[in-house]
Known about the structure:
By secondary structure, this protein is of the alpha+beta class. It contains five helices and 14 strands.
Amino acid sequence: MKRSTLIILIGAFVFIALLVFSWVFVRISGIxxxxxxxxxxNEPSLLVGKNIFTSNKKDPKRFDFIAYKNDGITVLHxxxxxxxxxxxxxxxxxxxxxxxxxxxxxxxxxxxxxVELDLLKSKYPEVSNELITPQVSRYLISLADNMxxxxxxxxxxxxxxxxxxxxxxxxxxxxDYNLDNFGPVIVPNECYFVLGDNRHYSxxxxxxxxxxxxxxxxxxxxxx
Length: 224
């Protein structure tokens, strides 16, 4: 083997080794991580099959998506409450420090007729892939709220009544809370309160309580 060829091969090996080492270091340090979305908990914002970048070098701000550890599993939710914030859900509407949070794209359950369901399917092909459960003369569907508003069915959203305890939410908070009527609660120091945008299908702080900052993994910085 010629000396020049050997030098090229050694150089290529060193370059590849440096790339691998750099990527491993970046992953271990949390400077940059990638994840595939496998849950519907944050629809319509983060769709199943999409990929995201997170970084622990970006300080999370209110309403950023963050990754954190829960029982050893990395979970993604929207950071809705910072230390000292007061949070409350009233008929499914989120209030932070007594101000409504209207800019977050959310998703809820709706109870609609077959005619309304067929119309939605004709306008939005992706609706056929939603969770649709037949009820008595109605269909229960998980639907993005903007779609419901655009089609005049926002008044058909399913809302748990105030004061009716949902088992797991009530047990976590020792109060008569449910998914739609919750709080008010105040976020303690060194903690976060997280919510999934798909409010009826998300095991977030309503179920698991506050997320301690020590569990924080990174902030979502990009999706593709």
